[in-house]
Structures are given as structure tokens and as C-alpha cells.
Amino acid sequence: MHKILLYFLTICVCGACQQKSTCYPIRNLIFSNLVMLTSNRGIGVFARDNSSIENVMFDNIIMQTRLHSGHWWGKGEPIHISYVKNLSLTGLTIAWGKSLPSFFTNGVEIHHFDGLHIENFQGSPAPGTRGFSAVNLSDGINSDLQISGKTSVVKENVR
Questions:
Q1: pTM score of the predicted model
Q2: Could you say which of 37, 60, 123, 140 would form a disulfide bridge with 94 (CB–CB 3.0 to 4.6 Å)?
């Protein structure tokens, strides 16, 4: 078993990306005690082509996102995850600034998942937006959500 542990890590204005896809499985990732500042997308995890990503945990994350000019992925959203098996998000709080542009929408978007655990999450959709939620889930199975009572959650095709 291979593990990648990142802890007490601060990332500021990071523009790293991998141009090639991998067909090898990516497993057992733990991201804990992170501070991300001025990121174009706070957390983005996507399995592409024939690859697979599983057993991923995010714990105790603080982030500030913004939209950068140029051709970057994302639109300043805090968390966007797709095609992951056994994902855990714990100890996350989303707090929005004032006077946000209209492209800010949901706090967390997770699509095509199998095994999702969200615990100790507090958040809301971006202020001033309509029709969005703090957590937007679609096309997934096996979810365990422990979210504060006022946090809005939208589920589409989630069992």
C-alpha cells in the first residue's frame, strides 16, 4: 500500500497541473491541516480516462479562492470532486467574503461517487445567489452526511 501524507502545508498561488493522464490507480491519500490562499479552485479531484481514485480524506482545511485571469480550470469554487471512491471530508467550514462576482455558486460539488462521508461541515452557497446550495451531490451511492442543520444540501440521483 502506498500513502501520500501532506500535513501542516501552506500553498499560495499554485499553478501546477499534469498534462498527461495516468491509467494507474491513485489510492490512500490524506490531506490534513492545510491552508490554501488565493487558489483558483480550492480542492479539485477528478479521475480521467481509465484511471481510478479511491480512499481520499480531506481534514481540517482552510481555503480562500478567487478567480484568476487566463485559462485556468475552475471558477474560484471551494471544492469540486468527481469520480472518486471512498471520499471523506471532515472539519470543513466555508465562509464567503462580501461582494462576490456572480460566478461563485455552490460551496461543495461532488459528482459520480461511491462512498462519501462528510462530517463536521458548515457552510452555505455563495451569498446573493439563488438556486445553489452549500453541498451539491449528484450520481452517487453510499453517502453518510453529518452536516449542521442549516446547511443546504441538494442531491440528484444519489442513493
A1: 0.77
A2: 123
